[in-house]
Amino acid sequence: MVHIGNSWDEQLAEVFRSPQYLQLREFLKQEYSTKTIYPSMYDIFNSLRYTPYEKVKAVIIGQDPYHGEGQAHGLCFSVKKGVAPPPSLQNIFKELNADLGVPIPHHGELTAWAEQGVLMLNSVLTVRAGQANSHKGKGWEFVTDAVIRKLNERQQPTAFILWGGNARQKAPLITEPRHAIFTAAHPSPLSAYNGFFGCRHFSGVNNFLAANGIEPIDWRLDD
Predict the structure, then answer these.
(1) Does position 1 have pLDDT exceeding 80, yes or no?
(2) With bands split at pLDDT 50, 70 and 90, how would you rate the model's confidence at 223?
(3) Strand (E) positions, the chain?
(4) What is the DSSP string of 77-142?
(5) Nearest to 217 by CA among 149, 175, 158, 176
(6) What is the spatial distance between Cα 212 and Cα 200, in angstroms, rounded to a whole number?
(7) Single pTM value for the model
(8) Which residues does 10 contact at the CB level (< 8 Å), separation at least 6?
(9) Residues with a known catalytic role
């Protein structure tokens, strides 16, 4: 069974025992044994591993992992150091720079955000090489919906950042008024100029956290 190694194990125990997850697991075993799948099976749950349940301050919800070789490592929008930041991530950095004056980093690894309490969660956690959304509808949504519901239940006010249509589909799961929902177009080059640029979500999230007595996120990334 899944072993994340922190409080998510207890929070999601029923999910990982469910028929829906066991069916997804069988599908993934077949996929990983016959095709090239990203990320590595050891990195699938990195978003939950790096950001324990009780430490979550904000959630960025992506679509599914990058489908190019060496890109995905279990955090939405993030690539490891040494991998060129994809266009969507470049646009995220541009908006961060315009919003808060944060220098555009020389790498695209967002682990530092995750370690501060930003849950970097894709809606779907695996993908076939070269085939975006190829694992959509295979069962991951059941798991990631459960993650959002668990966070919605908490008393701690949480900022949910929903960029693009796939992410906005999670909005109905966020029902408690103590939380904040930030929505915008997806940062991809196809849609960034239709409402992502200028959204100022980074300052908005920090203002929300500070107003609730929660330490804001330091969005800077060290080289």
Answers:
(1) no
(2) confident
(3) 37-38, 58-62, 118-122, 127-128, 159-163, 180-184
(4) T---TTSPPPHHHHHHHHHHHHHH-PPPPSS---HHHHHTTEEEEESS--EETTBTTTTTTSSHHH
(5) 158
(6) 19
(7) 0.97
(8) none
(9) 64
